[in-house]
Design a protein that fits this description.
The complex is a heterodimer of chains A (229) and B (254). Chain A is mainly alpha-helical and 229 residues long. Chain A has a single domain, classed as MetI-like (MetI-like fold), CATH 1.10.3720. Chain A contains 9 helices and no strands. With 254 residues, chain B is an alpha/beta fold. Chain B is 38% helix and 27% strand. In chain B, the strands form 3 sheets. A 6-stranded mixed β-sheet of chain B has the order 8-9-10-3-11-12, with helices on both faces. In chain B, strands 2-1-4-5 form a 4-stranded antiparallel β-sheet, covered by helices on one side. In chain B, helix 3 runs parallel beside helix 5 and helix 4 packs across helix 5. The chains are: A mainly alpha (229), B alpha/beta (254). The interface between A and B is medium-sized, with 17 and 24 residues. The complex binds adenosine-5'-triphosphate (ATP) and magnesium ion. The site of magnesium ion (MG) has 4 residues of chain B, from helix 1.
Chain lengths: 229, 254
């Protein structure tokens, strides 16, 4: 039988400021963990994505197909499955990682498969004449990449990479599935002790909003500055 | 200096060059003319090793571009071999292709330091000297994107010369320029032709320039050299009807 809302409201206020302040420190601590995972995961995604993009452009037989297959598998399966896979299957191969590290790795590798596409678009947008001029000057391959192609490709992909960092930040809560105490997990824990979920979940949401929104504004400004691919 | 023998180039089943033979001596200035799609650019790209030939051999300065000796047998050249021979060749493109992420100085010192192993000071001195030659000394720290087309092309010419190539390839280097900038670049090329002994192979639609710059003009059609003569002969009394038609068409357009 539904409880009249007036009864609920009388029993406890919808929003209890005292309680909200009480759970805030735990949530902020969890936010730090979330940010750490995002930054480390993004660093991995950006580095590995670039490696994948450059490898694919080099078209080395066999390796190219292997990398392609890997990217397709990662892009076609849920991130959550990949997280579980790393957490549960990796130890079977003698690779026991903390939940935190599994989170960083899973997010980093998952997003690398997307950032590699961003890099690829950026690299493809560098005119063919640039490669040809580098060849005509006999520049070594490595130097062509580092001095000619990437300096032209990277600025244009920064906004897209920034957007992936923001997406990753918002996907960190998936790691509650393996027990990482990130923001949503912390909120759930707080709530399950008091049976009051409104404050912790609301604060959790606000914390994400408080960081994601300015970050996406920043990306938008960057977009206007450098143009997009 | 340059020897093409029985060179063949195909794109899928479209034959661009077949059984192409011609030679260019050291120090010679040769202009390639011919209708659009006749394969002129392809010849320069083969020499610059931007494309690989499908048949025949190409020699530059006594070295084979297309093949190399391995175990006493001639085998197709690998990347390493090609890279060695390539250093003797420079190219200037229709679209300049300067590196926009570097200054003019950066464009000029990049390859001499990285490829020839010049010190920063040596490369810089060379850049300064070449910019003086092309008349852009004051632009040394400018970014290429801030330069006019004519200025960019001068920098591109200086960049190619900074490698001290034996052979310089010019592919319609003035056709992307505004008409009023063409003459300046052509004057510069004449100047370079007089001051250096670089072998120059030049694709051009500027018949006036070909007339006084070239020692020899090669008329291309259908992937073959149909006429090969000094400009005085080729422009005044061409042997072939195709050449006459082509020259008339070019003159009508101008
Ligand atoms: N990458 C390519 N793929 C396929 N076909 C090509 C390619 N490059 C050139 N071709 C073809 O080869 C032929 C010769 O081209 P090339 O660029 O050498 O001609 P060109 O004499 O320089 O012409 P233009 O005076 O227009 O510059 C053309 O029919 C062209 O369509
Ligand atoms: Mg051409």
């Amino acid at each position: 039988m539904p409880v009249p809302s007036s009864v609920l409201a009388a029993a406890a206020p919808v929003w209890d400021w005292g309680y909200a302040l009480e759970v805030l420190p735990d949530l902020l601590r969890a936010l730090v963990v979330t940010i750490e995972i995002t930054l480390l995961g993004s660093a991995l995604a950006m580095a590995l994505g670039l490696v994948i993009a450059v490898l694919r452009r080099a078209r080395i037989p066999v390796l190219d197909q292997v990398v392609w297959a890997f990217v397709e598998v990662v892009r076609s399966t849920p991130l959550l499955v990949q997280i579980f896979f790393l957490f549960i299957v990796a130890p079977r191969f003698g690779l026991t990682l903390s939940a935190f590290l599994v989170g960083v790795l899973a997010l980093g590798v998952h997003y690398a498969c997307y950032t590699s596409e961003v890099y690829r678009a950026g690299i493809d947008a560098v005119p063919r004449g640039q490669w040809e001029a580098a060849t005509a000057l006999s520049l070594p391959h490595s130097r062509t990449w580092t001095a000619v192609i990437l300096p032209q490709a990277l600025p244009r992909v920064l906004p897209a990479l920034g957007n992936y960092v923001i997406s990753m930040f918002k996907e960190v809560p998936l790691l509650l599935a393996i027990g990482v105490v990130e923001v949503v997990n912390a909120a759930r824990e707080a709530g399950s002790q008091t049976f009051r979920f409104v404050e912790p979940y609301t604060i959790a949401g606000l914390l994400f909003l408080a960081l994601s929104y300015p970050a996406s504004m920043l990306v938008r400004r960057l977009e206007r500055r450098v143009g997009t691919v | 200096m340059i020897v093409f023998s029985a060179v063949e180039k195909r794109y899928d089943d479209h034959v661009v060059l077949s059984e192409l033979d011609f030679t260019v001596s050291a120090g010679e200035h040769v202009c390639l003319i011919g209708p659009s799609g006749s394969g002129k650019t392809t010849i320069l790209r083969l020499l610059m090793t931007l494309e690989a030939a499908d048949g025949g051999t190409i020699h530059v300065g006594g070295e084979c571009l297309t093949h190399m000796l391995r175990g006493g047998r001639l085998v197709p050249a690998d990347e390493k071999h090609v890279r060695e021979v390539r250093k003797r060749i420079g190219m200037v493109f229709q679209q300049f292709n300067l590196f926009p992420n570097m200054t003019v100085r950066g464009n000029l010192v990049e390859a001499p330091t990285r490829v020839l192993g010049l010190s920063g000071d040596e490369a810089n001195a060379r850049a300064v000297e070449l910019l003086e030659l092309v008349g852009l000394s004051e632009k040394i720290d400018a970014h290429p994107t801030r330069l006019s087309g004519g200025q960019q092309q001068r920098v591109a010419i200086a960049r190619a010369l900074a490698m001290r190539p034996d052979v310089l390839l010019l592919d319609e280097v003035t056709s992307a320029l505004d008409p009023e900038l063409v003459a300046g670049v052509l004057t510069l090329l004449r100047d370079i032709g007089e001051r250096t002994d670089i072998t120059i192979l030049c694709v051009t639609h500027e018949m006036g320039f070909a007339q006084d710059f070239a020692h020899r003009v090669l008329m291309f059609d259908g992937g073959r050299v149909i006429e090969d003569a000094p400009p005085s002969k080729l422009f005044a009394q061409p042997d072939h009807q195709r050449t006459r038609d082509f020259l008339r068409a070019v003159i009508d357009r101008a």
